[in-house]
Design brief:
The chain has about 375 residues and is α/β, with parallel strands linked by helices. The protein is about 35% helix and about 10% strand. The protein contains eleven helices and nine strands. The termini are far apart. About 10% of the residues have low confidence.
Length: about 375
């Protein structure tokens, strides 16, 4: 029995309890008997890509881009004419809104659906017909909609008001099993519609704001460390989505930081529970002095290579501890936006080269991030 299998068995009973609590707390997904809470009640069988690529080269797309014909057309043309073979689409973004009509009653009750993509099933089918691997992105603990609908799950300040980060966005408690179940339900619905993989982001405690004011409705710092909470969430997530492809977005610094940085993220925990680990190794996001560079953004190859070398070293050490454990593959997010430096096609290619050089025969691809979804075609091979 592998390490991952043992973890799943330990948490199956907790998952069953979580389903019960989720149902008995006036959160009804639909009227069907529940086995797995994320199973969608779709009218037809919607399949995942039959032959998914072993090396994924993806771009990120907001739900707004996917709903806008001109933006969608641009992205599809880019995929059709370059080495790209995958796309990451927001399902639930920073707003907490889910971008299409699900079969989850709780989302309707909470006003958590903003139907930007009118026919998600047809969109996925079209992408699959183009042989495109489709990844759905779910922002987890940064969730203003759920925080508003369920203030009992929202992180508060000392005055009792909902705490907001630097972008004036609310968060829900990472220790809440109801929050875990809510996001598993959303992921399960998406997988049932043919999404090939679910990519989980903001799987951490908040860091961007006055964290000294935080008051958690569930988490008790005197009883458990943040890392334990996030690790338990990973285990619970893996059990709830057993057999499905899932990936984890982590801070780039998790590749070389040896503590959880106060947010609960340790790369070893992600390696054990996911299929892919995606550190956001954006050179612009590294502090001055990392790698010996005053402005790391100017050194895309060096910073990405350093980060991934460290991640691979730690993955190797984990494998030596338990050769039976199934560990996630590395597939990083790379920078395709201007911050700290003007990112030319050549600089983006340097990030890609660093990823390949670090991974060697275990190269599993990369994902490009640009919040505006305007990608540098000069960085992409035809």
């Amino acid at each position: 029995m592998t390490g991952r299998s043992i973890a799943i068995l330990l948490f199956l009973s907790a998952l069953a309890l979580g389903v019960f609590l989720f149902k008995t707390n006036s959160i009804k997904l639909d009227s069907r008997p529940l086995g797995f809470i994320g199973t969608p009640a779709v009218e037809e069988e919607l399949k995942q890509l039959e032959n998914p690529p072993t090396v994924v080269k993806a771009v990120y797309a907001t739900s707004w881009s996917m709903a806008t014909p001109s933006n969608l057309g641009h992205l599809l043309d880019l995929i059709d004419t370059t080495e790209l073979n995958a796309i990451v689409i927001d399902i639930k973004d920073y707003s907490g809104q889910v971008a299409y009509d699900t079969n989850i009653q709780a989302l309707e009750d909470y006003g958590a659906e903003d139907i930007r993509i009118k026919d998600i099933n047809s969109l996925i089918k079209d992408l699959h017909n183009r042989n495109v691997y489709v990844i759905g992105r779910v922002t987890v603990f940064q969730d203003p909609i759920l925080a508003k609908a369920r203030p009992d799950l929202a992180i508060k300040n000392r005055a009792g008001a909902t705490w907001l980060d630097h972008k004036s966005l609310a968060w829900v408690d990472p220790a809440s099993q109801e929050v875990w179940d809510y996001n598993i339900a959303i992921a399960g619905d998406a997988l049932g519609r043919g999404f090939d993989e679910i990519n989980f982001d903001y799987i951490r405690f908040p860091s961007d704001g006055n964290v000294d004011l935080l008051v958690y409705p569930v988490y008790d710092k005197d009883l458990r460390e943040k890392q334990e909470i996030i690790r338990d969430f990973f285990t619970y997530l893996r059990a709830g989505l057993e057999g499905e492809k899932i990936s984890a977005d982590l801070f780039g610094q998790t590749t070389f930081q040896m503590d959880d940085m106060g947010i609960g993220q340790m790369i070893e925990d992600a390696f054990i529970h996911f299929d892919f680990v995606s550190p956001m190794v954006y050179p612009s996001h590294y502090a001055a002095g990392v790698g010996g560079y005053n402005n790391p953004a100017l050194y895309p190859y060096e910073i990405v290579k350093y980060s991934l070398d460290e991640a691979i070293r730690r993955r190797g050490a984990l494998a030596l501890q338990d050769p039976e454990v199934e560990l996630a593959e590395l597939r990083p997010w790379l920078q395709d936006f201007d911050l700290g430096a003007i990112y030319t096609g050549a600089m983006i290619r340097e990030e890609m080269r660093a990823t390949e050089d670090a991974a060697g025969e275990n190269f599993r691809g990369w994902m490009l991030w640009d919040p505006s979804n305007v990608y540098t075609s000069a960085a992409l091979n035809p």
